[in-house]
Design a protein that fits this description.
Structural class of chain C: alpha+beta
Low-confidence stretches of chain C: none
Structural class of chain B: alpha+beta
Shape of chain C: globular
Helix content of chain B: 25-40%
Radius of gyration of chain C: 19 Å
CATH class of the domain at 1-6 and 428-467 and 612-765 in chain B: Alpha Beta
Chains: A alpha+beta, B alpha+beta, C alpha+beta
Distance between the termini of chain B: 43 Å
Strand order of the largest sheet of chain C: 4-5-10-6-7
Strand content of chain B: 25-35%
Radius of gyration of chain B: 27 Å
Oligomer: heterotrimer
Mean pLDDT of chain C: 95
Low-confidence stretches of chain B: 1-13
CATH superfamily of the domain at 1-6 and 428-467 and 612-765 in chain B: Aldehyde oxidase/xanthine dehydrogenase, molybdopterin binding domain
CATH architecture of the largest domain in chain C: 2-Layer Sandwich
Order of helices and strands of chain C: EHEHEEEHHHHHHEEEEEEEEEHHH
Distance between the termini of chain C: 60 Å
CATH superfamily of the largest domain in chain C: CO dehydrogenase flavoprotein, C-terminal domain
Largest interface: A-B, 64 and 67 residues
Strand content of chain C: 15-25%
Number of strands of chain C: 14
CATH topology of the largest domain in chain C: Enolase-like, domain 1
Largest sheet of chain C: 5 strands, antiparallel
Largest sheet of chain B: 8 strands, mixed
Number of helices of chain C: 11
Helix content of chain C: 25-40%
Amino acid sequence: MSQRIHVQTEINGEAQDFLCDPRESLLDVLRNTMGLTGAKEGCRNGNCGACNVIMDGILVNSCLVLAVEAEGSSITTVEGINTPVGLHLIQQKYMDHAALQCGICTLGLIVATKALLDHNPAPTEHDVRLWLAGNLCRCTGYDKIVRAVLDAAEAMRENV
Amino acid sequence: MTEKTPTLDTASESKYRIIGKRVDRYDAADKVTGQAVYGADVHPSNLLYGKVLRSPHAHARILSIDTSAAEALEGVHAVITGADLPSVSDRIVDLGETATSLRYQSDNILAKDKALYFGHAIAAVSATQPYIAEEAVSLIKVEYEILPPVLDVRKAMRPDSTLLHDDIFTDELGQKSTQASNVASHIRHAQGDVEAGFRQADVIIEHEFETTMVHQGYIEPHNATAIYNPSGQITIWCSTQGSFGVRSQTSDVLDVPISSVHVIPTEIGGGFGGKNSIYLEPLAVLLSKKSNNRPVKLTMTRAESLAATGPTSGSYIRVKLGADANGHLTAAKLYLAYEAGAFPGSPVGSAAGSMISEYRISNVLIDGYDVVVNKPRTEAYRAPGTSNAVFAVETVVDELCEKLGMDPIAFRLLNAAKEGDRRPDGPTHPRIGFIETLQAAQSHDHYQTPLDGKYRGRGVACGYWGNWGGRSSVSASMNADGTISLITGSIDLSGTRTTTAMQLAETLGIDLEDIVPQVADTNSVSNTEGTYGSRTTFATGWAAHKLGCKLIDAVKERAALLWDIPVDTVDYEDGCIFSKANRLTFKDISKYLDETGGPLMVSATSFEGGHGPSATTHIVDVEVDPDTGKVDILRYTAIQDVGKAIHPDFVEGQIQGGVVQGIGWALNEGYFYNDEGQLLNANFLDYRMPTFLDVPMIEAVLVEVSNPRHPYGVRGVGEVPIVPPPAAVANAIHDAIGVRLTALPMSPARVLEAVWEQTPSAYLG
Amino acid sequence: MHSFTYVRPQSLEEASTFLSEHREQARILAGGTDLLVQIQSSSVTPDYIVDIKHIPELNVLSFDETGGLRIGAAVPCFKIWNHHEIAHLYPGLIDAVQLIGGTQIQGRATLGGNVANASPAADTIPSLIVHGAICDVIGRQGIRSIAVQDICIGPGQNALAPDEFLLRFQIKPPSIGFGAHYLRFIPRNEMDIAVASAGASLVLNPDDQTVQYARIAIGAVAPTPLLVIAAGESLIGQPLTNESIDRAARLAAQAAQPITDIRGTISQRKHLAAVLTRRALVKAQERALQSLKGASH
């Protein structure tokens, strides 16, 4: 058996360290070792986006990052999206627009939406669809999600 | 842009306080923060991880299995094979929307003598880490004798075909044949005289159609975590559409008492019919038993989910329709051969009952065949079996309209079935709203707005689905503050906790915030069928209404005791209990429970017929790129009779989601097997479900033709939206470029080939 | 999944030394979006994973008027298309890096990985070829340069020696009248592997807008991405007309030697090679004309 490796990282603003096997993905460690199960495994191939996290400011599929690669990184999971006073506006808008059904893709989508609006505070419908195209949802047909994201963007712009 | 999709609400809306409102969903906050616990998130103490070894062959005899190297790997706790499953009898077991023989169910869970499809489970291991379990399965040595795979439904039906099973004898219209066959059954529905009907026809159109196996594509793969404790008590956590189904199926397959199996359903990441049957649960139980009673968690990869759960049938379909010069349908002759996968049980029966039932035709003959092939055993998928059949029917209807020079909606209005008409498969239609959806479509802005532009086309198609009622159980306890804890046995896939609570709140006349709904485990509520068949808001909602009526009776009794008056002098209205001299709110009675008999808890069940069928009319505009064969969806409108929309957001969501699944089925989804029967696209890269960029906004128009047989007029809404899209898109492609496609998916390669056939000079290669 | 050791060299020398000792058992990890999928499916079973993205030289992303564009092999696509100057100067390259996977794949996937993986359908390779990109590779013998069209030698096979790995890509500054475009055909609008693809670049004469230079490359229609020299040469000295574009497109289609697989058929791919080449040229022309217009102001 290969040696387990000590990794130091920052997750949702807190210093964290863990031991991992080199074969474990960041998703495996977040879920199985750190107990952060908000990132979901939908495909393990980078095709569905359910495991999205923000790593050093960039949206990534945590299933396609080795846990050992997280050494020295700063990671935001969906558990780190809430604000100190409660739900993030993005989360609130997903709720307001009934932009979720089963909810399994929702968490990756919320992380991807956060990354989108950090990058582009005023996206068009096409911008939203393009940015989120790596996040599959099988329940909603996407309609209400697009409305939620556009409304969240507008609300966040007004809040600034 | 961010306004909500408008709805066509009827006058009935005003009569309700809560029903019809877009209220907050009870479980939404947990689902946007990551707190909701799904099956794969369960982590009992001392957990082990399991992994399944699967057949790389589509059809092979298993000669030997050597598990010694896997067992010797450090960190491995147990290895199981088919020999670890008890031998079981041949009786039929209910899988929710489908049924099978118990022996087939057991064989599907772990292969015994033969592997019958690529991905068929052969063995399973438990280990301390997922990656050790993965390594361990790679160390199991299986010796196979490879057999010729049977992959094509028509070839499988030939008398000289290789057989999957030597004990399947065709059930030929109720008679068992004597020759073993891959045809498990032949069903027939006949009405009138079909040949006479064709003689009355002025126009007859007949086509053959082929469709490919497709998958539900839920984003959460199957999972199960189980403990077999030292007393023989079994606890299972899993994502399922029906916890009671998991309990009964697991007890059947493992041959243990149903009382020893406790199923705790978690939140579920999509099902669409694919999470009714069990796959992993007995394996997790057996592994736990062999792993010193430690809990074992099994999760499928995406590849396993696509290759080895239950997609829906590929099919070969022939449709012949005749109409007279006035546009009346005179006869329909339909032939359906459906892939069942490796074991009998395709949805050919439900297809036969739904594919043409929205039309009034005197002369109909439907022949359906359930055929085993070396592919995964099929399961239900949203209006099981119907989208591909309706693709065939509605394409031919479109061509009839074309030949007759009739508007497609006018033609359908002329032939629309209504209350009292008899369906070809027997039942008589109750009140249905098909005509109302056609009328709403005809006057809708989408249909009224001309479509301009080269290579653009508009298609119309309709759909029908019978829906289901069945068993549901709920209970209510009054809390110290007068709020109600509502327990339901129905798995909540998309907001049914909330719609159930809404119907209870409406019945009681109390605020929705005063009800806390929860999905319970199998020890905490009575038998409840799975969330399938568009039944939950209908049937569990009905149970909630009955529960409300019983609660009203109960609080009236408590008030009578409190006020020391006869109970028949106590009344209840709008959340208040009153008599001539007294008045209490529903919540206030909680202060007097002890002096009127103690805790208050009631339960109710429903087991009703009366589920109202759904009918729908879809309009789609497409643009075809004749150089690449790509079809873009420009605009989509789905008009559906929803009975009464308890929560319009959720109803729209069901319609939008079903439509987009249907668009995927229409254009790009499909299993791709090689000649050896290996699935080559078992991933979300090449199993191409629609992305955000592939669809426009989907307009859902809610037509409310109340179901007279439900207290709130509810009809199921979840399934019928997937029925028309493949046909609607095909008809739009024809309108755009003049070619009729008769195979699904209508992939760019297929569209291009049709274009080249029409215009050979278009080929530039 | 096969067990492996993870190595994270901090310098070119450290990486070269390790690779020269273990190359046959080692795979290089940059973004990991191909490699980790291959490891998951056990289609590769390395004993060592060498993570080269912490080597400073592989993370260079710069442009200057004399040296042109330099992109370290480990720079993720997202950083390339999010670099406004580069996006402005090389839209035909951005076409490709913005197509790979979804946004979250682009956050990891690198030019180096896409090229080294040597898929016939790799999106960046036809684009790099038509931009005349040179790839610097480093090994025990030092650094050498290879034209990108010479890197792929078969499906999944590249021309690098066992001890070598990709260091960076270099592209000359765009000349006046330069325009390029890359596009692919996929069944959906995102998230697929190219069924066929084409890249084209042009330099138009400022005086009469005839073609001074042209390159056409096609992807997913042969064992490697192909530079179709004849197609480009057919345009030299010509004005761009429907006829000259069609001729070049047909030459590209003739060069295609596709196979039928789960993503496409032979006839579909040959046909698409022509269709996409035509579309690539039309868009490249539009960009070239913009460049001329910009220069004349």
